[in-house]
Amino acid sequence: MGKRVAAPKAHWFWRFVFPLALPGLGIWAYLLNVQGARAVLDTNTGTAIELISDPEAAGFQAFAEPTVTMLVLHVDDEALVGISVLAETIPDEGGQVVLVSVDVLSDGSGSSTLAETFASDGAQAVADAVSNLFGFGFLDVVELPASSLGELFEPVSPLLIRLADDLEVVDAVGDRDVWLSSGPARLDGVDLARLYGFVNPGEAGVNRTIRQQAIWQSWLAGIGAADDLSDTVLGFYAGVPRVVSVLGTGQSAVDVLPVAPVDETADVLIYELNKQGIDWVAEMARRMVALPVAPAGETWASVRLLNGTTDSAMLDVAIESLSWRTEIVVVGNVEIFGVSETQVAYHRQGSADAAEQLAEELNAVLVADLRTDQPVDMTVTIGSDWMAS
User: Fold this and answer.
1) DSSP 8-state symbol, 239
2) What is the pLDDT of residues 46-77, one digit of tens each?
């Protein structure tokens, strides 16, 4: 599967709201979603509210769901053998897969690898480490054993995999036998799951990650080529089939996190992120995730983001500016256009410091609007001075 070609950016509504409000349920589901959002935001009395469905209209507001992300930890015989970071992109109706070697140091340059962290501290510790590497949190973390992985592969198997080397097993007396020869091989779900975690004796672990990339590419291609999507996801494991179906039927790419060996002369290679790797993952994270959630160990203020101007493109710019430091919960427009000054209004005293910092960064007016009925920590209103800056 080739690299994804970036399409022209769509209106903020189609990028951040509409695809999430319309998961195949039709326009009425969307209207109910917006009406419910307005009711929660604007009244505690049950008073009827005028339905505004035009995203360009004054007063329109809707919930903005975070980008769908998933971290899959592949486990074989209680050992961590693979890490997959998944994200659904909009409006591509596809997504991105990034594979991370389990032999990478947990914080990019620490003392223990991700595999060792899993063995000593468990899945959550690995999820936290990967979250911090990528700079965003995951909506779902799934620990996927080899048996379940095989079940997920089975509906589209056999899959064609091209192997660069012979894969060998060592028997009880130390003799080596070839399990799979180099070259093309068509494998069923069981063998694919075994291959996913397989390493040759003494082989560098990063080679396994390259084979995992080939498996993912073949798997998604098989899903995309199927006549009936329901036949490709017969297995079910904690939501993985749904996300993989989106990736397989849309425009997606599978990449491997670039890493460098800590010591090339060591008998067992472990890896770290050098500057190239750090820059790569930072750029990839922005491409993968439009609306992130806070990474492990961080708390972002929740924000309602409103456009106070008639230029709808400004909201798109504002979303990109705020999305990696706040949790954008609601997007829309003010009741009356013509706002001149960008404003940050905080609704809880505990958010005052964060609001003050954000207002300073945006060169905005800071307002104390303490209202316990608000579902967000603060409201950011974009004024015409934002355009001027």
Assistant:
1) T
2) 333 456 778 888 988 888 889 999 999 999 99
Please count the other Cβ atoms lying within 10 Å of the Cβ belonging to residue 74. 23
Q: Give yes or no: residues 261 and 315 share one domain.
A: no
Domain contains 12: yes
Is beta strand 79-89 parallel, antiparallel or unpaired with respect to 69-76?
A: antiparallel
Tokens of 375: 């579902």
**Domain-embedded: residue 293:** no
* CB of 342 closer than 8 Å to CB of 366: no
- Is residue 145 reached through a cis peptide bond, with omega within 30 degrees of 0 on the bond before it? no
Confirm if 335 and 310 have CB atoms less than 8 A apart.
Answer: no
**Span 300-357, pLDDT tens digits:** 999 999 999 999 888 888 988 899 999 999 899 999 999 999 999 999 999 999 999 9
With H, G, I as helix, E, B as strand and everything else as coil, classify residue 46.
coil
Domain hosting 374: range is: 1-65+298-389
Residues 87/69, Cβ–Cβ less than 8 Å? yes
Q: What does the angle CA 183 – CA 187 – CA 193 come to, to the nearest 5 degrees?
A: 110
The reported pTM is: 0.84
- Looking at residue 325, its pLDDT comes to 92
CATH number of the domain residue 112 falls in: 3.40.630.190
| DSSP assignments along 355-374, one per residue | HHHHHHHHT-EEEE---TT-
Q: Do 232 and 219 belong to one domain? A: yes
187, 211 Cβ separation under 8 angstroms: no
Q: Which contiguous run of DSSP H or E holds residue 212?
A: helix 205-225
Q: How far apart are CA 175 and CA 125, in angstroms?
A: 37
Question: Of 253, 270, 288, which residue sits at a domain end?
Answer: 288
CB-based contact 142:310 (threshold 8 Å): no
The verdict on 134 and 240 lying in the same domain is yes
**Does a structural domain hold residue 177?**
yes
Is the domain of 61 the same as that of 75? no
Number of domains present in the structure of the chain: 2
Residues 77 and 58 in one domain: no
Given 235, 261, 288, the domain boundary residue is 288
Q: Which two three-digit tokens encode residue 15?
A: 């990028």
- Which tokens in the block code for residue 198? 């397989």
The two structure tokens encoding residue 177: 């036998």
